[in-house]
Amino acid sequence: MGKYGKNNGNNQGEVDSPVAPGWMVTYGDIMGLLLTFFVLLLSYSTIKEEAFRRAISSFQEALGVLPQDRSVMNFEHIPAVRLSPPLPPEEIMKRIRNAISGAGLRESVRVKLEREGIRITIQTPILFDSGKADLRPDALPVLDELVKIFGESPNDVVVEGHTDNVPIHTPEFPSNWELSTARAISVTRYFFQKGNLKAARFAVAGYGEYHPVAANDTPEGRQENRRVEILLKNIEQTEAPEVKEGGT
Predict the structure, then answer these.
(1) Same structural domain for residues 42 and 164?
(2) What is the DSSP string of the chain?
(3) Total number of domains in the chain
(4) 183 & 217 share domain
(5) Is residue 109 part of a domain?
(6) pLDDT truncated to tens, each residue of the chain (248 aa)?
(7) Where is the domain boundary, 77, 106, 141?
(8) Where are its TM segments located (predicted)?
(9) 0.70 cut: is pTM over it?
């Protein structure tokens, strides 16, 4: 119970307020001292607004947060890239024929426009020695022109090797399939090395003697069948998506 004051002679006695515990007075004094201490610390420290903003900005950029007036990329200074349109088939055929004429190979190289694209047929004696798959230098001018054309157009390319029906049995080439495939690979590898072209654009096939264009019962017919065909596919076929049949 709280203590009450004395009666000063009046009929109504004056009542004193309850006395607070001693620990509360001490606690209040400590809080007052702490408040005074922090006020003094704050008065001694000065915050520079510009330095504070720079620090906050650096922290935001470190977290990937950019101000509204800034962009990750400055598109104003990016130069415009002009993509050259693909060469028309007529222009490609003209350039190939000019290269053939310049190399004196009109009798050994033919160019034909087909539904699938432009087919270049090169007789094997121009490209390879008999039974070999190493390129001869005679056909390099034509191949060099093809490298330039392939580098200027995005068309896919198919390189096919063909032989006559004369069997071959060597340690390197057990059959005409191996020989025709190796010759197609040699031509394709030359394109890669000379023009730094993307391998994904090229396909290689070796058909052996099984896709003849002439009868094999004459020397002239067998010479026609010994060939490498290079198909520069149409853009439509190059860009057409692959359609896979359903199945399990």
Answers:
(1) no
(2) ----PPP-SSSSPP-PPPPPPHHHHHHHHHHHHHHHHHHHHHHH----HHHHHHHHHHHHHHTT---TT--SS-GGGPPPPPPPPPPPHHHHHHHHHHHHHHTT-TTTEEEEE-SSEEEEEEEHHHH--TT--SPPGGGHHHHHHHHHHHHH----EEEEEE--S-----SS-SSHHHHHHHHHHHHHHHHHHHH---GGGEEEEE-TTSS-SS-TTSHHHHHHHSEEEEEEE-HHHHHSPP-PPP--
(3) 2
(4) yes
(5) yes
(6) 444 444 555 555 555 556 667 777 787 778 888 778 767 766 665 555 566 566 666 655 655 555 555 555 554 555 554 556 677 888 889 988 998 888 888 888 999 999 999 999 999 999 999 999 999 988 888 899 899 989 988 899 999 999 999 999 999 999 999 999 999 999 999 998 898 898 999 999 999 999 999 999 999 999 999 999 999 999 765 554 444 444 44
(7) 77
(8) 20-44
(9) no
Question: Could you identify the residue written with the tokens 């197609």?
Answer: 184
* Whether residues 63 and 147 fall in one domain: no
